[in-house]
Write a structure and sequence with these properties.
0% strand; 395 residues; mainly alpha; Na+/H+ antiporter like fold; globular; 78% helix; single chain
């Protein structure tokens, strides 16, 4: 009983620390994920040593559950109707922007750090996605025009599936002799078609169910929406589809539902996403051993600068070439592609699959994410002001 009480006390204390970290981060204009990661590192093996944690599979599971909750909340908050006007540039950024970032960062890492082409492209794929939690939090605090904010939000929700697929393909290229372009194309098509179909279907069924539950106790609607998120991810991933694409599309569909419980649904899932955010970054922080950073300090910093100043802006400009955004807005889109927990979660996949040099990749990715988030996350609002891209309030 005493051990149980201590565990519950520790859980409550960590959540309280996460809430405090969020408040401090908002006051000093830093992404909260940095403080959550720092908290995990502080109590981990290389810090005070209170929690000894090195289970990459469990960390990946925690990250996956957290990401599906964050993506579902992002889709639910937006809704497909609101996203439709910017669907073109959002999809283009998610596909062309993510693939371009992976290619530029991967080839550059291969040349600079003497990796093989396949290893460099794997590292680039891991670092390619923007982070939904970081971008959604940014958009709640920075006053950007609605169309621009929606585009960044749509990209953040749609590019995670693309990045996951690229990472899985590169893991197979390294691990499986003879894995070729046709295998990769078939894998990508299947992931997109199955994930998209399951997401739309679950979203429509969940919308119908929520309308039928309007006369039932309000708590049932909240449980039903949570079940929809879990079913969308699980059903798609179980039949080789993209679970992240499915859960985001399901969230968009439910976000369009005209139900009386909408306000409580939004509040419920915002709370779930906040807890998931804290838990994910804390767990990832526990996995990190700062004593191992000595070998990646310079390379990780160089990689972060390469991402922020070259790979992301070039890819974003290419992806928005036919959009209605002007040059200043495209510059901001290129700078606002925040990295965060998604690349770190993806970096656990090579470790789980025992890919050579995977621990080195993990430390490089973690340090690059720290530097990239610190530089970009703290300066997006400043850049928006300098470029004259402001709105009366946060979109």
């Amino acid at each position: 009983m005493e051990n149980e009480a201590q565990l519950i006390l520790a859980g409550g204390g960590l959540l309280a620390a996460g809430v405090l970290a969020s408040a401090v981060a908002a006051r000093v204009r830093l992404p909260a994920l940095l403080l959550f990661l720092g908290l995990g590192m502080l109590v981990g093996s290389d810090g005070f040593g209170w929690i000894d944690f090195a289970n990459y599979s469990l960390a990946h599971l925690v990250g996956t559950v957290a990401l599906l909750l964050i993506l579902f909340e992002g889709g639910l908050t937006t809704g497909f109707r609101a996203l439709r006007p910017v669907l073109g540039p959002s999809v283009s950024l998610a596909a062309i922007g993510t693939a371009g970032t992976a290619l530029i960062a991967g080839l550059s890492a291969s040349w600079l750090f003497h990796f093989s082409i396949a290893e460099g492209l794997l590292l680039g794929a891991i670092l390619s996605p923007t982070d939904g939690a970081a971008v959604f939090a940014l958009l709640r605090g920075v006053r950007l025009p609605r169309q621009l904010a929606l585009t960044l939000e749509g990209e953040a929700g749609l590019n995670d599936p693309v990045a996951v697929m690229l990472v899985l393909v590169m893991v197979e290229v390294i691990r499986v002799p003879g894995y070729g372009p046709l295998d990769a194309i078939w894998f990508l098509v299947k992931q997109l078609v199955v994930g998209g179909g399951v997401g739309v279907l679950v979203g429509l069924l969940a919308t119908a169910a929520l309308k039928r539950l309007e006369s039932a106790p309000s708590g049932l609607s909240l449980v039903a929406s949570f079940a929809a998120a879990a079913i969308a991810y699980g059903a798609a991933a179980s039949i080789d589809g993209s679970g992240f694409l499915a859960v985001y599309l399901a969230g968009l569909a439910v976000g369009d539902a005209k139900v009386s419980s909408r306000r409580s649904l939004l509040a419920f899932h915002e709370g779930l996403a906040a807890v998931a955010d804290i838990g994910m970054f804390f767990a990832l922080g526990l996995l990190v051993f700062p004593s191992q950073f000595g070998s990646v300090l310079v390379r990780g910093t160089l990689l972060a600068l390469l991402l922020a100043f070259v790979a992301r802006p070039v890819s974003a400009f290419a992806a928005t070439a036919r959009s209605r955004f002007n040059v200043r807005e495209r510059v901001l889109i290129g700078w606002a592609g925040l990295r965060g927990g998604v690349p770190v979660v993806l970096a656990t996949l090579p470790l789980i699959e025992h890919v050579p040099r995977s621990l080195e990749f993990f430390n490089l990715v973690f340090f690059a994410v720290l530097v990239s988030t610190l530089i970009q996350g703290a300066t997006v609002e400043l850049l928006a002001n300098r470029l004259g891209i402001n709105a009366p309030e946060a979109a």
